[in-house]
Amino acid sequence: MERYKILRELGDGSCGNVYKARDMITYEIVAVKKLKRKFYFWEEYTNLREIKTLRKMNHPNIIKLKEVIRENNELFFIFEYMDYNLYQLIKEREKPFSEEEIRCFMTQVLQGLSHMHKKGFFHRDLKPENLLVTNDVLKIADFGLAREVSSMPPYTQYVSTRWYRAPEVLLQTPYYTPAVDMWAAGALLAELFTLSPIFPGESELDQLYKIYCILGTPDLTAFPIGANKSRLLDLVGHEVVPPVKLPDIIPNASLEAIDLIKQLLSWDPSRRPDADQSLQHPFFHVDKRVPCPLHDPLELKLSCKRSKTNLELKLQDFGPDTDDCFLGLTLAVKPSASNLDVVHNASQGMGEDLLLCSDFNHHPDQSIFWTLLSPDQSGIHTPAETSLPLPFSSIQQHQQPIGVPQSAGFSFQPLQPNILTSPFLALSSPFQRRRCL
Ligand SMILES: Nc1ncnc2c1ncn2[C@@H]1O[C@H](COP(=O)(O)OP(=O)(O)OP(=O)(O)O)[C@@H](O)[C@H]1O
């Protein structure tokens, strides 16, 4: 261990103390976890869950175990170092995270979970303290309780920190599944909005009660695990309690976020989406949404097929005035798309949709958010002769009312009053205002 110079303690967990240290050979900063118990035999630690699990994991959202050292019957794990855990970030936070930040955290949690579950493991102790963050990167850590999916139940009851514990674990079912991690992800998603735990139970029973107060009486026919559980029946009795309205307790969450939280926090584990399904949820696909009423999706598809809209981007000519640089782009749409519903799939392989709102010229003030593919992504190329920088990046967010999807975007405004009478749509953005020097 003389290779590692301990700098300071980072955490004192139930299994070990974690230290920040410097690798004196590479000068890299690492985290050293010194396990509290002693290890006298080789097999004792090769069988450790944390080692068995992490050895099989190789994913950017799962903490990397670099080395295991046994010295004087003591065991040290050498991990890549991360600056914070999510609990610290939540605790120190003075204003709520933006939905974009939450999306960024949750995407990584779910990608890590997806990898782990596919590799045949579930974590069982997902909580903010075990999610480590450096800059924008999040990694799942602490696999001390991880379990192989294929391992044989019954599983131990005392699993996972209470606040993030799934009802089937609280109900002491021996047959829980990776869906326990999805429950924890739902509790985490809610907490990222409110900055406090959604179910802060003070005992196991109180934990179940707190869940019951928010989710209401479970439908026992749809929740067979709970049906024969006297613990739950004792708690819920015969009175049917309706669920609270989640937007009332998570007012800063969009409708999409609320829906995902609801799904993840299903009493019935089989109704929770898995990590991949969660990543497909509209909460993670803001760019594809348009905050104005659209027609039936089927109709959209059909209208898309009917009129093959041709979309091209042109750069306008600019005068000598610096303000002429303000407006960068004009969308030219063929008259066949007079009733603009959908411009689908500017680039087939991209999987991106460009959605335009019909009748937008009847609502000239309405902001329409949409994705603008960069020219090389979309296959749409700017004329080679232009020297105007295309300000695709650094687009500010409008302040969004709750429930309205956020998206990096542009607002539609008529470039010239008459331009809308021609089949041209002007795409402008005050964010694009640049000085031409
Ligand atoms: N790789 C790392 N980089 C930076 N800090 C870390 C790292 N690993 C762990 N920590 C810090 O140490 C704390 C405890 O680590 P860990 O959860 O692995 O230990 P534990 O003994 O298993 O804890 P628990 O009581 O939660 O089971 C974490 O919450 C985190 O703050």
Features:
3 domains; globular; Transferase(Phosphotransferase), domain 1; Phosphorylase Kinase, domain 1; 437 residues; alpha+beta; binds adenosine-5'-triphosphate; 5-stranded antiparallel beta sheet
Shape: globular
Q: Segments where pLDDT lies below 50 for 5+ residues?
A: 290-437
Proportion of residues in extended strands: 15-25%
Cα distance spanning the termini:
58 Å
Described by strand count, sense and barrel closure, the largest sheet is: 5 strands, antiparallel
List the helices and strands in order.
Answer: EEEHHEEEHHEEEEHHHHHHHHHEEEEHEE
Q: What's the β-strand tally?
A: 16
Side by side, the strands of the main sheet go 1-2-3-5-4
What is the CATH homologous superfamily assignment of the largest domain? Answer: Transferase(Phosphotransferase) domain 1
- Which CATH top level class of the largest domain fits? Mainly Alpha
Over the alpha carbons, how many angstroms does the gyration radius reach?
A: 26 Å
- What CATH architecture of the largest domain would you give? Orthogonal Bundle
| CATH topology description of the largest domain | Transferase(Phosphotransferase), domain 1
Task: Specify the helix fraction band.
Answer: 25-40%
Number of domains: 3
The distinct bound ligands, ions and cofactors come out as:
adenosine-5'-triphosphate
Structural class: alpha+beta
Write down the overall mean pLDDT: 69
Number of helices: 14
